[in-house]
């Protein structure tokens, strides 16, 4: 194929591509974690935010023209991007631009859907005149070279290409599911179907959209304008644009695979409290599927200048209690004093007071765990001050009266649930 014969092919394509990252949604399935922040701004993995993964994938893929489309409670997201992603050089035509929802002249509305968000930015795309437009979700966790996908898009002669992964059919009900022919051309697309169509030859698995789309620029303009004229459209890529594209154009599927092993790489939609908890817990393992220590494909982010984590022995009632973290991940500015942290992930500036026990938990930044507290199987939101002696995750009925308990039994605690006032710029 041309891609294999010409190694410069991909770099030329990525230079001719603009990325549009959809970062305006609340993500209501994350419950109270998104009360004061948009889903792409939710912290992840000890030091990152979800938006860092698509942004890092763009930079590592050689895509240096990036628009981040914001809407719901975007201040912490905007602050994070401004602080951590301002290193590109404008004089070289490189940028990460924040594009807030803007009222249109014809209708004073916010974004009506994912497709409408990009439609309202057509003038910005036109001004930069890319050959290809890469549309990305701002809230998925994965590492991916978009250049390979764009090259396959061009080689296939498609007007639109949809990135996809294989998934068990029972899980696929929560996603957009595609049916493709032997040439990889999409024949149908259904959003969150009750009975997902199976992959040919594999009745237990389905082909699921990753929320990653490559468009030829002029075709994108044409299909979005057509969608904007339809009175019955919900202005959504999955529900409206993709089905229309299948009817009127050539839509290809790009199966996300490791080019060396042909295995499906890590990809997670951390859209629920249980999925968020599990994805963070996976990172604690000795060899997690998502390698955040990979120097060849780094995940970039903004990080404050903080001192190293500290573990302190504290005398309590004549006994010297060591500060320990076992089978855990800790971050800058953490202080674990005379307490035990076991199989947990601590974000930055977490203080665990003496005689406390934290196990199987995810503790977001700037949390204080009071003396003698017991926390298990929980997600503690940023800024919480856990009172001395409080017990979380040991009595399900008591937890349900005070906090949010997920279907999987994860206890989510926020400052508001504790009756505490905090800075809502999280």
Automatic annotation (TrEMBL):
Q: List this protein's GO terms for biological process.
A: glycogen biosynthetic process
What this protein catalyses is:
alpha-D-glucose 1-phosphate + ATP + H(+) = ADP-alpha-D-glucose + diphosphate
Q: Which UniProt keywords apply?
A: ATP-binding, Carbohydrate metabolism, Glycogen biosynthesis, Glycogen metabolism, Nucleotide-binding, Nucleotidyltransferase, Transferase
Start and end residues of each Glucose-1-phosphate adenylyltransferase/Bifunctional protein GlmU-like C-terminal hexapeptide domain = 307-413
State the top-level EC class.
transferase
Q: Which residues form the Nucleotidyl transferase domain?
A: 19-283
Q: Which residues bind alpha-D-glucose 1-phosphate?
A: 111, 176, 191-192, 209
- Name the EC number(s): 2.7.7.27
Q: Please list the GO terms describing molecular function.
A: ATP binding; glucose-1-phosphate adenylyltransferase activity
**InterPro entries in alphabetical order:** ADP-Glc_PPase, ADP_Glu_pyroP_CS, GlgC_bac, GlmU/GlgC-like_hexapep, NTP_transferase_dom, Nucleotide-diphossugar_trans, Trimer_LpxA-like_sf
Gene3D superfamilies xref list? Hexapeptide repeat proteins, Spore Coat Polysaccharide Biosynthesis Protein SpsA, Chain A
Q: Name one Pfam family in it.
A: Hexapep_GlmU
What does the subunit comment say?
Homotetramer.
For this chain, the family text in UniProt reads: Belongs to the bacterial/plant glucose-1-phosphate adenylyltransferase family.
**Protein name in UniProt:** Glucose-1-phosphate adenylyltransferase
């Amino acid at each position: 194929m041309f891609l294999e014969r010409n190694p410069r092919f991909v770099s030329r394509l990525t230079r001719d591509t603009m990325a549009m990252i959809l970062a305006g949604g609340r993500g209501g399935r994350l419950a109270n974690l998104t009360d004061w922040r948009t889903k792409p701004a939710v912290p992840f993995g000890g030091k990152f935010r979800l938006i860092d993964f698509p942004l890092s994938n763009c930079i590592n893929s050689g895509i240096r023209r990036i628009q981040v489309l914001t809407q719901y409670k975007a201040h912490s997201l905007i602050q994070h991007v401004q602080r951590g992603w301002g290193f590109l050089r404008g004089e070289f035509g490189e940028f990460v631009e924040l594009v807030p929802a803007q009222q249109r002249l014809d209708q004073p509305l916010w974004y009506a859907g994912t497709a409408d968000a990009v439609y309202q930015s057509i003038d910005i795309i036109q001004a930069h005149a890319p050959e290809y437009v890469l549309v990305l979700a701002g809230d998925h966790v994965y590492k991916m070279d978009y250049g390979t996908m764009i090259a396959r898009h061009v080689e296939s002669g498609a007007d639109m290409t949809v990135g996809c992964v294989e998934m068990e059919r029972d899980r696929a009900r929560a996603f957009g599911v595609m049916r493709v022919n032997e040439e990889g051309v999409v024949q149908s697309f259904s959003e969150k179907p009750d009975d997902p169509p199976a992959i040919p030859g594999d009745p237990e698995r389905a082909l699921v959209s990753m929320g990653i789309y490559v468009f030829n620029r002029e075709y994108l303009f044409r299909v979005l304008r057509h969608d904007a004229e339809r009175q019955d459209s919900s202005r959504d890529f999955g529900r409206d644009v993709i089905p229309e594209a299948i009817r009127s154009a050539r839509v290809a599927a790009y199966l996300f695979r490791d080019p060396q092993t042909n295995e499906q790489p890590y990809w997670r939609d951390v859209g629920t409290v249980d999925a968020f908890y599990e994805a963070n817990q996976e990172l604690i393992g000795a060899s997690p599927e998502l390698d955040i220590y990979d120097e060849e494909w780094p995940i970039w982010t903004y990080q404050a200048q903080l001192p190293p984590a500290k573990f302190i022995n504290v005398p309590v009632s004549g006994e010297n209690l060591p500060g320990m973290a076992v089978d855990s991940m800790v971050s800058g500015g953490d202080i674990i004093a005379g307490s035990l942290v076991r199989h947990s992930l601590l974000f930055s500036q977490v203080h665990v007071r003496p005689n406390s026990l934290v196990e199987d938990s995810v503790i977001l930044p700037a949390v204080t765990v009071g003396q003698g507290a017991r926390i298990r199987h929980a997600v503690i939101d940023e800024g919480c001050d856990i009172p001395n002696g409080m017990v979380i995750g040991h009595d399900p009925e008591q937890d349900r009266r005070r906090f949010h308990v997920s279907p999987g039994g994860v206890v989510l605690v926020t400052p508001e649930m504790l009756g505490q006032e905090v800075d809502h710029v999280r």
